[in-house]
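Worked Example 4.2. Consider the chain below.
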Amino acid sequence: MSRAVRIAFCSCVFTIASQIQAAEPEIKPAQPAEFAHARITDVWQKYADRLTFGRGQTLALVDDGCTLSKPEWSTPVDGRPKVLVSYDSVDGDNDPKHEGRGYHGTTIGIPSSVNYQGKRGVAYNNQVAVIRGLECCHCKVADSVSLAAGLQWIIDNHAKYQITTVNLAPVDDKEHAEPVPTEIDAKLAKLRELGIWVSAPTGNHNFTGGISWPASQPNCFAIGAVRPGKDIVVLDRHPKVDLVVPAAATSSSNAICCGAAMLIREAIDQSGYNWKADGENLPAAIMKIMQQTGVKVDDPATKLSFRRLDVLAAIDHVYAHAKPAK
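Applying the procedure from the previous section yields the following structure tokens:
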């Protein structure tokens, strides 16, 4: 091969390689500051060869519906649909489109689950079950009837669709210092018994005397917030709060936490970690790991201390304390 031909050949190869590289989208966290603060991007790098980041798990998004035609939800990933199944417990059909005042459910799955054009959520290889459980995410306790029906659908179908995690997204924007008995309570207890994680946002009104329903309920983890980039507790907080997560709103805090719970569950399954030493059920054990490995944050307004999510520390803990393979 002549020198001229070799040069032309090398130039062609370089051009093709450059085109391929240019065609691959840049990897971007769905919420860069929040993910860096909670050390999610560090987990992606450190455990790239050990974790699948949600593959084989489905996250149920219980909110006010979703526009399923959005490309983030309608575009398959590696040949698998991102939205695995949908249900509307208000109307009793399979079409979760927004109706009435609904708007929130189209975006609430982004921090936990998106995998589109390089943008990634925490557990970006998971799939999603979209459940329209009420008309609007800013709800009333009376919405417990349709929400309970949505949770019952998850109970009935969790094995079929591999649902491990539930983002119970609504907030009633009230200051509940104690639980409010409603129809969802028995469903939450059953989901916890089945080993399915359920968490909800605390609310966004800077309340210090209580938090929103349904986060106020037993068997539902209450997720609050710290300011992204700073360990300053913000928004609604109270002794009921189980964990705080960097985000501008507690709905995003909870979404990030749901994705993190899926990663920790996968690490437990993959490593053989004995979670029973941490809790009477798997969700309780995952929360205990999050709390034990989280960063302590003091809140002058309530004189309380909370634990801030550190996903890398949690997963490092699981692998460091896993039973060695025989």
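Residues 250-271 form the longest helix (22 residues). The chain has one domain: 33-320. Compare this with Example 4.1 before moving on.
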